[in-house]
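User: I'm curious what two different proteins look like when written out as structure tokens. Can you demonstrate?

Assistant: Sure. I'll show them one after the other, since each token string lines up with its own sequence. Here's the first protein:
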Amino acid sequence: MWLDTTYEVNGGTMATETRGEAAAKDEGKAKPAAKRTSPALFVRQVIAELRKVIWPTRRELITYTTVSLVFVLIMVALVSGVDWVLQKGIFSLFS
């Protein structure tokens, strides 16, 4: 037994959902095997994608690096501070 449910989507466009035996039949089908690509094709695709990248300017790169380093230093200080406080608390509790 199967059930069709219809939903309104985007102001009138209809979408149908099938449940039950009909949906179960689709699950049993084997998916076609993905074709393997050659290493040369992979390299060509990587180069094509890298050409699409918008590289940061020198100023942006310096800004991003500085922000990242400052954030890491703040997090190191925070974790070290919490560790030190917990260490002192536990040592005073058990000594």
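Here's a second, unrelated protein for contrast:
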Amino acid sequence: MTSLRTALTRPRTGRPPAGGLGAFPRLAKLVLRSVAARWATLTGSFLALTIGTALIAVMGRALAGTGPLPASEELTTAVALLGTAAGVTGFVSVFVVASTFSYAVAQRRRELGLLRLAGASRAFVRRLVLGEALILGTLASATGCALAAPAAPRLTAWLADERLAPPGLAVTGAVWPYHLAFWTGLGVTLAGVTAAARRAGRTAPAEALKEAAVDDRAMTPGRWLAGGGLLVTALALTAWRLATDPGELLHRKTYTVQPMLLVTAVALLAPVCAVPLCRLAGRALPGWTGRVARGGAVAAVRRTGAVAAPVLMTVALAGSLLGTVGTVNAAKAAEAAARTRAQYVVTGDVGGVRPPAGARTLASAPTRVEAREDSDRWIGWEGRAVNPYDLAALTRLPVTAGRITDLDDDGIIVTEEWLTHRVGATVPVRLADGSRRTLRIAAVLATGTGETGAYVTPANAPGATPDRLEVRGTTAHALREAAPHAEIRTAARWLADTRPGTGRATRAGFALILGIALLYGVLVLANTLWMSTADRAHDLRALRLAGATKTQTLTTVAAETLLVVTVGGLLGAAVAALTLAPLTVALAALSAPVTLSVPWTTLGLLLAACALAALPAALVPAWWRLRKRQTGSDAPPH
């Protein structure tokens, strides 16, 4: 018996908890008893919220330390990484709490029905669930803030060691990160439990009399509306971006937020999607074990959806983020390879290099150009200072209008991404030294992956020093003699060394984000399976009465668990596919190479990690239930 049943069956005087002001003391006592009795099932949510609050506080303290630092590439990387990681943390925290409490309310149908049968109003039951969440969120948020104090200096040191932040990054005494983390944690808890509380309030008194374990109404109208609405919204936003600005799909904010909408939508619709997938994937399980496992997963569709949800989240986020970045980086690499005609690339000290006789060279220097978009806004673009005839001879740029050789000291080459991109038109620009000029557009290039930038002559790149020399029509030996102090590589080697996404900082950033997703996924997966022990009790007794041995019964539990984890992986792969498919269309629309990159190895490892976490979380409680029948124990271990 749980605390609710105990509280309701005790002799008491006065009216039942009808939900008015007089019911508050009784409600408070009931909330505290419920939390105390259900602490084992709330552990996963508590840990997830604690970790989430701690991470937000730690990242907030690290971001507070970036304020005094000068602008740099490392600082930009740090801010982007911390912002993305905080966004992922907030999303998965809401996801975990919503998933856990939704399943907990479904488990407690009879318990809540008993409360309604005793006279409690819908509002009283709703406040009961919200009260439990409030206590959980307050304790978890406070604990997370306490843990953030010693963790923040370690994070900033790690960021600096991995070259993800400037060396001068240090934790400051700012207190706003703690306020942000605490109230975010509490808000996340209440946001995640709101739908579950409303559903609890709709529990009918007749639920107290139900014994059936089959979920006859897993999909409520609200769930259909929320899941379908989010799915349509995500797909509509993608279609709108493809029609208006395909390049938007290549930006970090888009490919970080879009999977979250799809993950939430598919998770809400999981009870519908899981049934056919369970039947399909369950055919691979042999014999009666497979039939029983398949039947159990299909019958207990709420449990199936709750267990599949964290696997779906982990696989979908990994597949979407890694797949998008990998695909974009592969397109950038293919684009760079297709645009060069050089045999060798010389980098380093190239200012005084005298090319060998007969060689054709292209010396280029990095610069920056700012274009005026309106009366008070300037947009910065990376650029290269070049000789136009050498540029035409050593590259294959995707020219859509004009000619490269028309570039002169009064001209500029731009891409279609510029607001003004008509050959012959003039654009006001601000050069690297801050001086202003009005340049004529000599040629327009296809946007591609956005790495093309702008081209000007050296006269419009004040202070720029050549850092790269592209060469063809000579030998490596002749180049070494001409440039003894520079680094000489073949074009293929240079392209491989400068391929986007191969840096240590990129790998470390992905490790941080995916580590957060995997940690949360494993936590909620283990917690949900532990919570489902009570649901399995009737199934386990039925199997034993049918003649199954203890080993066969546990094998069935393991088979059903692996089946549901597989279904979650398939749903996650579907979300990743819905993210990557429009990306390939966007790349094609931008005249960029389309090279789909799917992180199969990483997804396989994540799915295996989920399975390894799920098996003991399902088998240990099941084993204890079977043992209880022999020893007469009361409950599984906490």
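A detail about the second structure: Residues 227 and 268 are 5 Å apart (CA to CA).
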